[in-house]
Amino acid sequence: MFNQSFYSMKKILLLAGFVSCALWSANAQITIPQPSPAGSVYSKVGLTDVTIDYFRPKVKGRKIFGEGSEYLQPYGVLWRAGANSGSKLTLSTDVEIAGTSVKAGEYLIFATPGKDAFEFKLYSDLSLGGNVPAYDEAKEVLSTSAKVTKLASPVETLTYAITDISEDNTSAHIELSWADVSVKVPIKVSFDETVMADIEAKTQVNPGNYLAAANYYYSADKDLDKALEWINMYLAVGENSKQFWNLHVKAQILAKMGNKKEAIATANQSKELAANFANGDFGYIKRNEDLIASLK
């Protein structure tokens, strides 16, 4: 009886010791920098959130892109466009990439390097990760040619960027740069329907949104009669008519409509209010003078 209890206790102690050693071993692991650290780039283009999460390999003196097996990424061979589990593009809305419609969602980025162009690809099945040999063309969402630009200053660490955002926020480029090359893939977004729906809904809740709606219609060259109606509705509320900076917006709308006489009168009204404003004119005296001069 004693021996049985003794051996049972011994087993328990050994098991406890084993578990303690395992826990100690797990907690004692050393954290060191990874050869290809994780990276992420984000930008809003229009109303679309564009995010790229990727792992960033370094050149480390190697030959990266070229013809033959001596290169890390030979021409004509499919590449995961990053390291480790590959690179992921996330889009918050539907977009157009290089002329192809791409739905909102998450996609893996692949590329086939070439001397003059890379074939840029998007893949729908995230579970593939960096397993290039298992690539299934049936799950390919996009494949487009992207022209190679040779870089004067080599990029040591693979870098993605969202560049060249247009003034009207409707387009940009997804750019990949590494070693001595850079490729850019165009992306276009559309937000007009969203803005229009927002205007329809929110101007009924908050009349202050008429100002934003008028500005949008003016800058986007939409229905200027509607823009004028909205700015007038805004200016009619409370003391808003004394806001010379927004009277200037009305003058601009009238000018774009070709109504020079009313535009000049409104610009003069804005100029007078600006000249008498205790905290300064914020440059609106000159803005109004310039607008008036352009209409004479």
Report on the architecture of this protein.
The strands form two sheets. A nine-stranded antiparallel beta sheet has the order 1-2-5-8-9-10-11-6-7, with no helix packed on it. It has a two-stranded parallel sheet with strand order 3-4. The mean pLDDT is 89. It is of the alpha+beta class and 296 residues long. It has helices at 2-27, 192-202, 209-219, 224-235, 244-257, 260-275, 284-294; strands spanning 38-45, 48-55, 65-66, 73-74, 87-91, 95-97, 100-102, 105-112, 117-123, 140-163, 171-188. 34% of the residues lie in helices and 30% in strands. Helix 3 (209-219) runs antiparallel to helix 4. The longest helix is centred in the first third of the chain and has 26 residues, at 2-27. It is built from seven helices and eleven strands. It folds into two domains: 38-188, no CATH class; 192-294, Serine Threonine Protein Phosphatase 5, Tetratricopeptide repeat (Alpha Horseshoe).
Please report the total strand number as a whole number.
11
Order of helices and strands: HEEEEEEEEEEEHHHHHH
* Structural class by helix and strand composition: alpha+beta
Uncertain spans: none
What count of domains describes the coordinates?
2
- Cα-to-Cα separation, first versus last residue: 114 Å
Please work out how many helical segments DSSP would assign.
Answer: 7
Shape: elongated
Placed side by side, the strands forming the largest sheet appear as: 1-2-5-8-9-10-11-6-7
- Give the rounded overall mean pLDDT: 89
As a percent range, the share of helical residues equals 25-40%
